[in-house]
Amino acid sequence: MLQDDPFLNHSLLSFYINAGLLDALAVCRAAERAYFDGRAPINAVEGFIRQIIGWREYMRGIYWHAGPNYVDSNFFENARPLPRFYWSGKTDMNCLSAVINETIQHAYAHHIQRLMITGNFALLAGIDPKAVHLWYLEVYADAYEWVELPNVVGMSQFADGGFLGTKPYAASGNYINRMSDYCGTCCFDPKKRIGDDACPFNALYWDFLARNRAKLQSNRRLAQPYATWDRMDEGAQRDLRRQASRFLAELK
């Protein structure tokens, strides 16, 4: 039964590699053999091997190089508590509700769900990165700290200020709409920035950039979004920041 469930296989494989019960090189060689035997396409095998011997080993290096104080990194000085819905999945934002409920059910979520849904929201909302780290560590079966901590503190929350990566993984509702089907059944509109039915990710995204401009404006990878923000008139900027402020004031 497990062999017919690719979702579960991925979840279990990630767990065993992270726990050290599977040798990473042996896994990569098995994937390579699958390609040469005609049982897997080159794009899937290449991406899989690159993740194993590239990204995971990079995470391991960051973890040991950064040392024990890395867990306290907080580049943006975020202090907001983790919202209660991270434990229950009870939120009107469909993307977050779906991912968190799947997490509760399976103790697993796809990397992009972790990075661009739960992680992205926490970053935009100014959640304490250590609280975000502890949540990931507790809810995912494959979350061994050597791989989880750098991915969350460094990549997802940019709490190390760029020690691991080159830019914050921040995005608006438009990105989530392009990359998923969550928005089609959500009560919030990813195309709207202002109003009761506007996707909260939109105002939060622009508010994140505005409030952290002093720390981020020199980042070349953010030149385009800051140029877009500067082209907005002051009224539009003010409305977006007020929209975000109202949402955050009610976030529990």
Tell me about this structure.
The chain has 252 residues and is mainly alpha-helical. The protein has two domains: 2-66, Serine Threonine Protein Phosphatase 5, Tetratricopeptide repeat (Alpha Horseshoe), CATH 1.25.40; 75-252, DNA Cyclobutane Dipyrimidine Photolyase, subunit A, domain 3, CATH 1.10.579.10. It contains 13 helices and no strands.
Compose a concise summary of this entry.
This protein has helices at residues 6-18, 24-36, 42-66, 85-88, 94-106, 111-125, 129-139, 145-156, 173-179, 200-211, 213-216, 223-231, 234-249.
CATH superfamily of the largest domain: DNA Cyclobutane Dipyrimidine Photolyase, subunit A, domain 3
> What is the CATH C-level name of the largest domain?
Mainly Alpha
CATH fold field value of the largest domain: DNA Cyclobutane Dipyrimidine Photolyase, subunit A, domain 3
Spans of 5+ residues with little confidence (pLDDT < 50)?
Answer: 1-5
What's the overall average pLDDT, rounded?
A: 93
What is the correct CATH architecture of the largest domain?
Answer: Orthogonal Bundle
Main beta-sheet strand count, sense and barrel state? none
The percent range for strand residues is under 5%
Distance between the termini: 41 Å
Q: How many whole angstroms does the radius of gyration measure?
A: 19 Å
**Which percent bin holds the helix content?**
55-70%
DSSP helical segment count: 13
Overall structural class, as computed from helix and strand content, comes to mainly alpha
The helix-strand sequence is: HHHHHHHHHHHHH
Query: Could you say how many structural domains there are in total?
Result: 2
